[in-house]
Amino acid sequence: MESSGEMVAFPLLITPIDTNYRACTIPYRFPSDNPKKPTPIEVSWINLFANSIPSFKKRAESDDTVADASAKAEKFAQRYSEILEDFKKDPESHGGPPDCILLCRIRELILREVGFRDIFKKVKDEENAKAITLFKDVVHLNDAIEEESKRVENLVRGIFAGNIFDLGSAQVVIFVDNSGADVVLGILPFARELLRCGTKVVLAANDLPSINDVTYHELLEIISKLKDENGLLMGVDTQNLLIANSGNDLPVIDLSSVSQELAYLASDADLVVMEGMGRGIETNLYAQFKCDSLKIGMVKHPEVAQFLGGRLYDCVFKFNEVSSC
């Protein structure tokens, strides 16, 4: 479904009044902090985003769909660097104080303002194409496991680390993350198994491009390539598979603002899955829902690992069961 119209709160999110919902997991500052002086945590995240500028500039320079890409990439790098330095001088500048959502948003806005739409498009297409060629083999290997619990454990090992919940859910909403192997070889085989068990599955993908995250339109294209002429996904009916445009345009997500289409499709789901570091760890790790929820992702930033008391590349799997009492 296309994203259009006014954004709304995700209906399964327990109301902010009840939970003091804050999208960002890490507290960047407290009320007692000087509003005109960046906190040490804010500075560390400003530096993290500053360190990523050369790689983003290189990606932008190689975007052959944009005229004068090299000059525009330089303009992006200079402008974003200036804004990050401004935050160090005054955290309230440019709509601050800064957090991972604001820093991501400003980066994407500058890229679009100077003329770039999707600097990761080429690598996403390449990774999707490779993963699509492996999809059948992955599914065949899983289908060969006769015992259901072991088959499910094998399916979710790379995503959920073991048989963390059963397949009794009637409807599942999964916020997907990266293109390539992540979505094609991780999420889609699992979604197919849920469909085979009679579960309705809603896959929610970004509206606009942001780093290598799969977009709504890209996900539609991937699934169309994987279906056969009868609309089956390796022999499984896909009538209960719905693709939703989340309305999001960042690698992180604030669930107080999603598309009306997603809100409608997710309204009666009994499991929500936030997949990926951006959506399930850097944001929404402590988000509370009206139904069971699972947050899953790999820790790829030292700042996040330090906050969680873990190590770089640790995997986080956080399952919250809502009591039926």
Low-confidence stretches: 160-167
Domains, number: 2
Which class of the largest domain in CATH terms? Alpha Beta
For the secondary structure, the number of strands is 8
Radius of gyration: 20 Å
The main sheet comes to: 6 strands, mixed
Please state the overall shape, judged from the principal axes of the Cα atoms: globular
The proportion of strand residues reads: 5-15%
- Provide the succession of SSEs: HHHHHHHEHEHEEEHEHEHE
Computed structural class? alpha/beta
Q: What distance separates the N and C termini?
A: 35 Å
By CATH's scheme, which homologous superfamily of the largest domain applies? Uncharacterised protein PF01937, DUF89, domain 3
CATH-assigned fold name of the largest domain: Rossmann fold
Helix content: 40-55%
The CATH architecture classification of the largest domain is: 3-Layer(aba) Sandwich
Strand order of the largest sheet: 5-2-1-6-7-8
Number of helices: 12
Average of the residue pLDDT scores: 91
Overview of the molecule:
By secondary structure, the chain is of the alpha/beta class. The protein has 2 domains: 28-98, AF1104-like; 128-320, Uncharacterised protein PF01937, DUF89, domain 3 (Rossmann fold, 3-Layer(aba) Sandwich). It contains 12 helices and 8 strands. It has helices at residues 16-19, 40-51, 53-61, 69-89, 100-114, 121-143, 148-156, 181-196, 216-226, 260-266, 277-282, 302-308; strands at 171-175, 200-205, 232-233, 236-237, 241-245, 271-275, 292-298, 315-320. The strands form 2 sheets. A 6-stranded mixed β-sheet has the order 5-2-1-6-7-8, with helices on both faces. A two-stranded antiparallel ribbon has the order 3-4. It is globular. The model is unreliable at 160-167 (pLDDT under 50). Residues 169-316 form the Damage-control phosphatase ARMT1-like metal-binding domain. It holds the Pfam family ARMT1-like_dom. GO terms for molecular function: ATP binding; hydrolase activity; metal ion binding; pantothenate kinase activity. Its cofactor is Ni(2+); Mn(2+). This is Damage-control phosphatase ARMT1-like metal-binding domain-containing protein.
